[in-house]
Amino acid sequence: MLEMRDVGVRVIEMKDRDRRSNLPTVLGRKVKVKTWPVRHLDFSMTPGETVFVLDLANDRPSLFLRLATGLLRPDEGTIELPAHSVLVTPPNGRVLKSLSIGQSARLMAGLYGMPDHAIERRFDEIVRLAGVGSRVNEGTDSVPRRMLQQVAFAAATSASADLYAFDRMALVGDREYHEQCKQRLAELKAAGHGIVIYSQNPAHVRELGDRGLVLDGARTRTTDPDTLAKLLIDVKKGRLKKRRKKRRRRDAD
């Protein structure tokens, strides 16, 4: 289904210039640096498998998802992609601002690859899955953001794809709607679709995952869901400590 061999991605970052540099400051305080956030990546998926992704640096959590869905080409190595992949990301409220819920559902379904005739045929099913049937004619500016996420989830998972990648969009809405998301993901998995999820919830990893992929700088490794969930908890605790230190410094200033 998905095969990555010795894959590498090179990016250009702006970093602070070395203070010991003799270059004049008129050239700026930033300098362009080429880095490899992912390199020598070997990874494969089988039909019906659910893989959770954890980026320890948390700087480019969606980079792997874009690679897996063919939206980003590697600078090194090769990738064998499935025939059709979908990357599900949080909807842009500014783009949908002047539309109704129903119009937004049609637009997002089209963006996820559904042709017009399929959208027309499955529109009622998308609306039902999104849980917005009674509000389909309301404007998007009158509903909570979680409802737009439900529409995006419903539209994406109604599209015909071999691989679904979710960037913090696998379980959306309130707790009640979470159960509908889980049921829909289980249906996709049972039908042989591949699922890749980026999430920061350890409980979701343990409940839904078959494997975990850890991105540690340019290095990568696979692990079981329980180990990945424990690692995610440790990472979140570390980041929380850093946030508290920054908050104390701001308060002190």
**Overall number of strands:** 9
Tell me the CATH topology of the largest domain: Rossmann fold
**Poorly predicted regions:** none
CATH class of the largest domain: Alpha Beta
Proportion in helices? 25-40%
What would you report as the Rg, rounded to the nearest angstrom?
A: 21 Å
What is the 3D form? globular
Strand order of the largest sheet: 5-6-7-3-8-9
Question: Quick check: average pLDDT?
Answer: 89
Q: How would you concisely characterize the structure shown here?
A:
Helices cover 38% and strands 26% of the residues. Helix 5 links the parallel strand 6 (163-167) and strand 7.
What structural keywords apply?
2 domains, 253 residues, 9 strands, alpha/beta, three-stranded antiparallel β-sheet, Rossmann fold, six-stranded mixed β-sheet
Structure characterization notes:
The protein folds into two domains: about 1-85 and about 160-250, P-loop containing nucleotide triphosphate hydrolases (Rossmann fold, 3-Layer(aba) Sandwich); about 90-160, no CATH class. About 40% of the residues lie in helices and about 25% in strands. It contains seven helices and nine strands. α2 crosses α3 (about 115-130), α3 packs across α4 (about 145-160) and α6 (about 200-210) runs antiparallel to α7 (about 225-250). The longest helix is centred in the C-terminal third of the chain and has 28 residues, at about 225-250. The mean pLDDT is about 90.
